[in-house]
Amino acid sequence: MTRTWDSVMSLLLKGGETIWGGLDWSPEEGHACKSKKNSNGQTTSHNRTLDLANYGRVKYGRLLSFGKDVAELHSSEIERIDFMGAIKGSNVANTTCRVVWSEYHDMGVEGVKAVADHKVYTASSVLDLLHYVAPKMMKRGGAHFSYGIADDLSDKKYNHYKYWSNPLETKLPNAPNMEIFSMYGVGIPTERSYVYKFSPATDCCIPFQIDSSAEGGAEGQCLKGGVYSVDGDETVPVLSAGLPSSKIWRGKTRFNPSGIPNFIREYSHAPPATLLEGRGTQSGAHVDILGNLALIEDVIRVASGATGEDIGGDRVHSDIFKWSERIKLKL
Questions:
Q1: 250 within domain boundaries
Q2: HEC states along the chain?
Q3: Angle CA 84–105–135, to nearest 5
Q4: What's the pLDDT at 46?
Q5: What's the average model confidence in pLDDT over 8-22?
Q6: Residue 20 neighbours by CB distance under 10 Å
Q7: What per-residue confidence (pLDDT) applies to 216?
Q8: Does residue 189 contact residue 47 with C-beta atoms inside 8 Å?
Q9: What's this model's pTM, rounded to 2 decimal places?
Q10: Domain assignment present for 64
Q11: How far, in Å, CA of 229 to CA of 234, rounded?
């Protein structure tokens, strides 16, 4: 999809390791998931934070890890190679696959293996990976989107539209009488990082695949089917939905020079108890949130002229403020 729908590239992570964590740290350290029974006997997932001293850290900063063992080891124990300097070698493509031909076919056997041998990728090195695997696509996307953190927002280069979709490389308008509301669901395990496996190219298969056999053994390990989860709305993790209003734009910052007030309104997910409730009037799921009665009430009150203070200020169920404090960002 990314190769044909260029706008999907706007969804790539912004801020690199500063925001999303590195090899041995992440803002969500200590987060864990636990299964519980709801009122109608169904098993649901419950997000919580555990004592770090009594629980092995999930290394969420490792967005892609080739192997579950690599996802869990300390970075000093992982032997890696620099894939950027690897010779791509001979073409890996099956000539019968022309209808789904993509740039990875031009990498060569050695290039594909080098990507897997790098073992682990963070938010920063994932961009390097994409530049290596699909340089033409990333060159095209780089003309329209940017993923860094601005050093000096007064630099005229940030007037270019490619920076406007990145809150870390653009400023809010001078509008102190305006208010910003971040409204989103929480309480549902949401994809955050992945365990991959290297599959030798056969037929038309892409050789990098999520390892669906990777499972978390201990209670609280949010690893299921090769996917590590954190708190979120099942589509967008809390860190992505809540960080702008909890830190980047909170108060008067270089990203919010006029100090536009920000309010966070989180809606804790409660699945419907019966089929008669449809998709749920208290759902926090990404695809159902517009049916959440509490959100509808907040939207109607704000549209009718109520301020953030009038509707109760921040309403937070997650650890977004604690997680945002761990991010060392120049404000």
A1: yes
A2: CCCCCHHHHHHCCCCHHHHHCCCCCCCCCCEEEEEEECCCCCEEEEEEECCHHHCCCCCCCCCEEECHHHHHCCHHHCCCCCHHHCCCCCCCCCHHHHHHCCHHHHCCHHHHHHHHHCCEECHHHHHHHHHHHCHHHHHHHHCCCCCCCCCCCCCHHHHCHHHCCCCCCCCCCCCCCCCEEEEEEECEEEEEEEEEEECCCCCCCCCEEECCCCCCCCCCCCEECCEEEEEEECCCEHHHHHHHHHHHCCCCECCECCCCCEEEEEEECCCCCCHHHCCCCCCCCCCCHHHCHHHHHHHHHHHCCCCCCCCCCCECCCCHHHHHHCCCCCC
A3: 45
A4: 52
A5: 94
A6: 26
A7: 82
A8: yes
A9: 0.87
A10: no
A11: 9
> What is the sign, positive or negative, of the torsion defined by CA atoms of 200, 205, 206, 211?
negative
Q: Tell me, what amino acid is at 329?
A: L
Range of the domain at 262: 171-187+233-330
Q: Rounded mean pLDDT of the chain?
A: 86
The amino acid at residue 122 is T
pLDDT confidence tier of residue 100, bands split at 50, 70 and 90: low
Quick check: is 106 in a domain? no
Point out which residues pair with 34 in neighbouring strands: 46
> pLDDT per residue over 137-195, tens digit each?
899 999 999 999 999 999 999 999 999 999 999 999 999 999 999 999 999 999 999 99
For residue 276, being part of any structural domain is answered with yes
Number of domains composing the chain: 1
**Angstrom distances, CA of residue 118 to CA of 58, 104, 129, 255:** 20, 16, 10, 35
